[in-house]
Fold YidC/Oxa1 family membrane protein insertase.
Amino acid sequence: MKDFFKQKKKLLLVVMLMVVTLTGCSVPRGQNGKTYVDSIITIKEETVARKNVDFEKGSKAEKLYKDLKPDERITIKPTTFSDAMDEGWFHGIIVYPIAQLINWVANFTDAGIGIIAATFLIQLLIFLFSIKSQVANQRMQALQPEMQKIQAKYAGRTDDRSKMAQAQEMQALYSKYKINPFGTLLITFIQFPVILGMYQATMRAYSVVTGSFAGINLAKTPIEGLKEGQIAFGVIFILMVLFQLLSFKMPQWLQEHRKKKQHVKEKKYAEPKKQPGMMGSMNMMMYMSTAMIAIFAINWPLGMSFYWLVNSIVRVGQNLLIHKCFIKD
């Protein structure tokens, strides 16, 4: 019973962390996908074309610049740490430094390299602090057949004795594979503010709003680029969707490869008809989240698709590294 309440406290902490984070952040772009001019973060004074930004309804910027022609320029003053903190702790501590890192790297190369450098650095830090969690996530794939067996065994049995027996068998299964599901959730959601901060920083960094990668304009949407006959926009968008799916499926495929290599034969246990099981739910979430990202990204500046592509490639690499170096059984 003591362990139960400890786990409940961890879950409550996770929920509170998510609520605080979501409350502390805001949406820095309009419905057209373009960043609000007041939300752009820059190292020094810069200018931006009116056509590349949007304005919050009723804001001072809208009153000042709404009558500008698309190619006319708007001057943006340098963003200070104090300015970012005025927006809230989330912007000052997480979004601001990441956005300025992207801007700083972009000064020597371009916006695409800035996104790549910042993404690799952030993902490396997350990886170092969450190796156990990511290893546990891959181990979760190994216990799926046994978990399904337990679910099938107690399917339709709703009495308290059966529920308790099922819970005990599930706990024994987690102990066998040395997995603490609540601990894994806690570590996973601690990463949530940083990942969200990286996404917001990519939207707000001046170098991304106005920049390019290898000559490809990151401010244009994939639709706009394709209409102009620029195939690179479609390539980046399609690669983003594919690698997003690959990053989700990789742990499952690696586990299947491991079993095949070790000649592990397991019986396939039927899952309860009305309970699709954890794997089915995970697959559904994977396809839905990827579809949502694709729907939004097709009409958002290419910089967003490029960020999701780089982020997914890094996650695929992390999964391969964990599989090779940390999963021994």
About this structure: Residues 231-261 form the longest helix (31 residues). The longest strand covers residues 46-49. Residues 2-325 form one domain. Confidence is low (pLDDT under 50) at residues 1-12, 18-24, 267-276.
